[in-house]
Amino acid sequence: MISVFDMFKVGIGPSSSHTVGPMKAGKQFVDLLIEQGKLQDVTRVAVDVYGSLSLTGKGHHTDIAIIMGLAGFEPASVDIDSIPVFIKDVEARERLLLAQGAREVDFPREGGMVFRSENLSLHENGMTLYAFAGDRLLERKTYYSIGGGFIVDEAHFGQSVLDEVAVPYPFHLAKELLSHCRDTGMSLSGLVMKNELALCTAVTKFTPILAISGKPCRRVSIVA
Questions:
Q1: CA 30 to CA 175: how far, in whole Å?
Q2: CB atoms within 10 A of CB 95
Q3: In whole angstroms, how far apart are CA 189 and each of 41, 179, 185, 200, 208?
Q4: What CA–CA distance (Å, rounded) separates 5 from 128?
Q5: Which residues have CB under 8 Å from 167's CB, separation 6+?
Q6: Per residue in 171-199, pLDDT tens?
């Protein structure tokens, strides 16, 4: 069951598939390097962007989103105003600070980010990230941005991106939701709240409400 807060969350615009997902992929890749103890061996990173992500990548700032993810930032907490300066520094020096400064590596203007118009076999929104130690490939990972800011790696494609938790009123169609409301006499919002409380505790479930309400609605998104 997808939580309300899996869908309604803080993003950076203009597209959850083309910015939120790719930023999360970049962050997940660098977290993997840390987990595997490889980060301090990395001297260069590179990214291949495929299909729809490639064709609209510059316009939707997919490249910037991936770079900021590799830098260790997340869509909900990144300082939007700091992004242009950060990107200009990366472009000027052809160097990238990974994991919020934990490791500085080469990120060349030519070959650092390659846009490829062809689709990968599993999905049109694909990206492959590489980490090198000199000429030696340390790690390679392919991610797919499958919509709504959700990502999945190649090994887990087709599997649920969420942990399955039993809720009191499961539904997959609107008519099933309305049927629950008729049977219980609850309002739609009241019934959804029951499911939300099953997915998480009341205290932690209200935390994202406070986080979202504290974010101003801004008519800007990530820019170069």
A1: 42
A2: 14
A3: 51, 14, 12, 16, 17
A4: 28
A5: 1, 194, 195, 198, 199
A6: 989 999 999 999 999 999 999 989 988 87
The tokens describing 185, both together, are 């006499």
Nearest to 151 by CA among 65, 221, 86, 84: 65
Query: With contact defined as beta carbons under 8 Å apart, do 133 and 42 qualify?
Result: yes
CA distance 137 to 41: 11
User: Could you count the other beta carbons within 10 Å of the beta carbon of residue 24?
Assistant: 21
In the chain, domain spans: 11-156, 162-223
The strand pairing partners of 130, in sequence order, are 46, 140
Classify residue 116 by burial, with Cβ atoms within 10 Å: 0-12, 13-18, 19+: middle
From the candidate CATH numbers 3.30.1330.90, 3.90.180.10, 3.40.50.300, 2.60.40.2890, the one assigned to the domain spanning 11-156 = 3.30.1330.90
Q: How much is the pTM?
A: 0.78
- Taking the C-alpha atoms of residue 46 and residue 137, their distance in angstroms, rounded to an integer, is 11
pLDDT in tens, 116-142: 989 998 888 999 999 999 999 999 999
- Please give the distance of CA 175 from its chain centroid, rounded to a whole number: 31
Distance CA 61, CA 55 (A): 11
Alpha carbons within 13 angstroms on the beta-carbon side of residue 50 total 16
